[in-house]
Design goal:
Length: about 140
Amino acid sequence: MGLASIIISILALLGSLATYIIHDRKIKGQEKMINDYQLAKFKEDEEDKKKALVCGNIIKKVRGQRVLKIYNKGKATATNINIQGLDIQEIEVYDKILPYELMNPQDCADIRFLIIMDAPPTLKLTYTWDDEYKTGNTYTQILSL
């Protein structure tokens, strides 16, 4: 009877130890995955703080007048901003502000222009700019006139 209780106690101890080791290994694996995710998220957030994103909207006014409102919706300052696509014959640009020297996050600038007869229904614009993360960033956008 004493030997049986010792064997049962040893088996219970070994079972508890095996369960603990398996559970501990699983928990450590999950913690490693969580830590890797948090590190990747932190690195991505740090990179986002160095990136600007320049894009625009067209606001319709009266009799063919339009305003292209360009803005920086990134988290970093954009410099040396330029726009390709405004140089078509059917558009007469009033504001000659390009290249735009500096645009802080959440800032905007307006470019007024007039649509001349037979203009296309859409305008394909390509924005280029520099920021802390990279020089020569581009973003292409198609806007309705």
